[in-house]
Amino acid sequence: MDTKIFKHFTTVEFGVGAAETIGDKVKEFGGTKALLVTDPGLISTGMIDTIEKYLQDAHIPVVRFADIKGNPVVGCIGQGVKVMKDNGCDITIAIGGGSSMDVAKAINIVEANGGNILDYEVTREGQKNPLKNRKKPLIAIPTTSGTGSEVTIWSVLTDPARNMKASFGHPWYAPDLALADPVLTISVPAGLTAATGMDALTHAIEAYTSIAPMPQTDALALHAIELIAQNLRQAVANGKNIPAREGMLMGSLMAGMAFNSSPVGCVHAMAHTLGGAYDTPHGVANAIMLPYVMEYNITACPERFADVAIAMGETGDGLSITETADKSIAAVKRMSSDVGIPRLREVGCKKEDIPKLAELAFGDMNHNGNPKPMTVDKMIEIYNEAY
Fold first, then answer.
1. How far apart are CA 64 and CA 296, in angstroms?
2. pLDDT for the residue 260
């Protein structure tokens, strides 16, 4: 029997002011002391002080863990677990972008199951070891509009020993609650807004054109593409544009819900390799690779790429499906150019590294979701095209 499973495990409260309810939400989960996982950059904005004030007003003690890089490494998870245990925290709050949320998810899993986070890596062959214990409650508060990590079952971390990114995923990683407040995204600088927005677009396009689509994810992904196409340029141009920020936050969230159940593909596989090798921001790496992998995949499902083009505002009037599908690639390249995404050669990639990058990308578990079979040689060609 060909069974399809739609996965969604996170309650979402969306809208201006959602984050202000954090104290009450912690109490609803029975939390008495919170581990707040965030990053140094966000602390410098003063936003974390505001969130902690909401918690203090609700008489919830808070312990911070902020030893997190833009591409977080596996080694920080053990540190976070120690802070959580030493301080007796019984609930975790992740506030920030995907880095903070991915770290918080992994901390909770290791705290509950023991060992090292690498014990639970997911490779192309599956998860190394089963999870036995559910995590403590996790509340996610996104401050960027890109990863959708506030609603996903995935965590991605850099393993410096292998110079690559490792994936971890299971329904128990998913946050229990997401408080999605567009006001918290206003201070995100234009470059990060562009990178995270293109990350969300990649999630939506790969989910819609994946090897395993389904009606629920199709609806989420297509609407996410529309929202991102309508709002990303405006959000980059003027970060205080609340309607644009709201559209981007919802688009990012919906894209995350889509790829929980319809997997991403070789854009992510090739982007993860760039992040592991050069510390390239994930959204930038996805944006660089997206149009070139789309061009390779387009013959596998041209009707779906035609839908992507139309969702991005292109017209298919009087054109064949193939001609309309080709417009999706042009639309993505134009979007990347308009928001300032660099070329591959501009992010530190060395041309002589490309064969090794392709080998690593071929082994990435996201390779499994690609709609068209891929080879190492073809990945080399695609990297060279993006260069």
1. 44
2. 93
